[in-house]
Each structure stands twice: as C-alpha cells, then as structure tokens.
Amino acid sequence: MVLPVSTGAGPASDPEAARALAAELAPRLAARAAAHDAAGTFPEADFADLRACGLLGLMTPARLGGCGASFADYTAVAVELARGAGATALIFNMHSSVTGALAHTPDDLVRQMGAPDSFLAARDRLLADAAAGALYAVAMSERGTGSRLSRTSTVYHATGSGFRITGSKTFVSGAGHADAYLVTAKDAGAFDPRVSYFLVPAGEGTRVEPTWDSMGMRATGSHDVHLDVEVGPDALLGGVEGVTLLLAEAMPQWLVASYAAVYVGVARAALDAGGAHLRERGLHTLPTVRSRMGRADAAVSAAELVVTEAARRVTEQPGTPETNRWVWRAKLTAGDTAAAVASSVLEAAGASATRRGHPLERIYRDARCGALQPATSDVCADWLGGAALDGDPHRDAEVPRW
Predict the structure, then answer these.
(1) What three-state secondary structure class fits 114?
(2) CB–CB of 252/327 below 8 Å?
(3) N or C terminus: which one in the chain shows less Cβ crowding within 10 Å?
(4) Under 8 Å CB-to-CB from 149, ≥6 apart: which residues?
(5) Number of helices and strands in the chain (H, E)
(6) CA–CA separation, 67 vs 73, rounded Å?
(7) How far is CA 176 from the centre of its chain?
C-alpha cells in the first residue's frame, strides 16, 4: 500500500523545514522498505514523497526555487532519510552530489576556470529543474576499474555541435528512473587521462541493463548504463574539460563524505529496529543485551559527531587540508561503525531477527555495504595514514586514489 504524503506545511522552503520533513517521512519510507528490498525494486513512492516535499531541490538555491541547503544541512537530512530507508537515502545522496556540487561551486571560481556564461545559465536551469522534481544519478564506476576516475574507459570526442560519449557504467543508483546522469569520460584524443564531467539526459543513446541483484541496498536499482550518445556543449559541466581529477582531490566531499551521512542513518536504524525487537521479546533487561546496546549507542553517537564535524568544516572551510582530512575520517568512521553496530545488535536480537523480512536483517545487509562503497574503508584508512605521516596521500600511494 502506498502511504500518501500528509505533511501539513507543504514543500520545504528552507533547510530547517527540510530536515523536519525528512524526519516525518522516515517512518513512511521504513514501511515500504521491506517490499522494495525483497523485490529489488526502485522505491517510486518514496521519491514521489520526496518530490512533493520539495526535497529534490534541497541543494538548489532559494532564488531558483530550492531550499538553499549547505553540506551540513544535506548531512542532517540524509541521516533522517536513511533512518527510514537506507537505499532511498543512498539514491538521494547521488542526486544531492550532483546538485550540491553545481550549487556550491562559486561563480568566480567557475569563471576563473574558463567557463562561459552559457554554462552558468545551463547550471541554473538544471538546479531549477531539480527543485521542480527532476532526479539526477551518478554514472562514474566501471567494471574492472571501479571508481578510479583516472582509469575511466568511457570516452568522448568533440563534434561540430557538442560531444559524442561512448562507454558503459556500473553501480548507477536510480538507473532507469533518473532524468539525467552525471557521467565521467576521458578525451579519446588526449595522451594524458583528461577526464571530464558531463550531465547526460536519459533517453535516446542511454540504455539501462538490469544487472543489480545485490546483498544489500537492493532497492537502489544500481544497474549498468550503456552510452552511445551525442550531447550539446552545455552538457560539459563547468564548461571546461579535464577538471574531474583536480576537483576529486581538492574538494572530495561529494565523492567521499556524502555517503557517511547515509550510513550514520543506517546505524541509527539498527538501534531503532534492535531496540524494538528486544523490548517486544522481553530481552531488554538482560545485562549482556543492555551492554551491547549501550556500546552500540555510544559508537553511533561518536560516528555522528565525526560526520557532523566534517560537514561543518566542509560548509565553513571547503577544500582546506584539514577539512579534507575530516572528509576521509567521516567516511571511514561511518562505514565501519554501521557494519559493526548492525552486527552486534543483530547478535543481541538473536536468530529470530535473521529471518528474511525482519527489519534488522535488511538493515544489517544495508549497513555492511558502507565500508565497501568508494572510497572503501581500506582506501580511507590508507589515505589518512599517509596524511598522518606527513606525506601526500594522493601522490605517495602505489595506485592512484582516483
């Protein structure tokens, strides 16, 4: 059964209202999550709710009809949504990564990079479309190379009217339901790996291959997308070629730390579901159970503080070396904490909570994905280790980070 939206305040017009609406939506998302997980289906009703509440325009500036949210505001909203349904929050994260990067790159910086005024107009149209309900997906990962952008095999070349893009992407959350895809591709004629961002409209020239059948986050619809498409010049984000690797190193928050908020919310959901199960079974007074839940509560609260601090720094001082350290700390801490907490709470709940369809069983599988999503926990820890040893974590690695 699809639960209708019943928010009395209408679409969110500011970040505080957006967070309140996300918290109100969370139980609604949770009620649908089991069915979408079992069938591996895209949560269409969830996104109908997000549209109706104006949350797809969270990152869009107020002048274009959105909420004008900061990275810290996004983090707060994503935690609430993930507390309801991790898969829905993860798709929302991908959309927010696109709109947030567009909205938060200063006009002066864009012009310094050489972007034409036509790009600024195109950017505003994309952000206004998001506020009106357009959904954007991210198509960066590829089979065999994962999210290492320098190893991208999708290529582009200039045509008389724009660019031709050819290649295949995997792990594209929301594939087949997005209005456009953020695609990474390298210049087919360049000697060095000059990688660029393109926003490619869904439709002719983009083909979705249904490949997604995963252990966790099953409702993200992260299918493969095959591209053989020509796009106009405005599809080149920033209006400048070859900036992808530079931006990934200098301002990694949307590629790294945005996931962290989702997995803090998933960890909170494990506490919620575990507590409900333990009270229902009358196990909540056992000392061993209480100890597990106490440690889990402390771990989730600590992870949330790390993620919140990273988000605050990104909002106030984006791109500084210390801010970027917090970005990598947030992803490492959130991914590892979600997996550890969900595992411990599941053990406290007992075998009955491992049955298919039990909320904790689904949340456990979703939580286990956090450390695996790029950048993985091992990559994050290695990056942080390089920084702690006064090295250059981007240059000192045997394999390029991106």
Answers:
(1) coil
(2) yes
(3) N
(4) 140, 184, 195, 244, 245, 248, 402
(5) 12, 7
(6) 10
(7) 17
- 25 alpha-carbon distance from chain centroid: 18
The tokens 């810290």 sit on which residue?
Answer: 72
- 31-80 pLDDT, tens digit each: 999 999 999 999 999 999 999 999 999 999 999 999 999 999 999 999 99
pTM over 0.90: yes
DSSP per residue, 144-204: TTBT-GGG---EEEE-SSSEEEEEEEEEETTTTT-SEEEEEEEETT-SS--EEEEEEESST
| Residues 142, 140: Cα–Cα separation, whole Å | 7
* Residue 9 CB neighbour total at 10 angstroms: 11
Give the closest residue to 385 by CA, choosing from 313, 327, 325, 336: 325
- CA distance to 72, 129, 135, 204, per residue, from 19 (Å): 11, 21, 19, 36
Bridging pattern class, strands 155-158 and 163-172: antiparallel
Element (H, E) at 362: helix 359-368
Quick one: 120 exposed, middle or buried, by C-beta within 10 A (0-12, 13-18, 19+)? middle
Cα gap 332→304, rounded to integer Å = 12
Q: Could you tell me if 136 and 178 are in contact, meaning their C-beta atoms sit under 8 angstroms apart? A: yes
Whether residue 306 contacts residue 257, with contact meaning beta carbons closer than 8 Å, is answered with no
Beta strands in 221-293 (DSSP E): 223-231
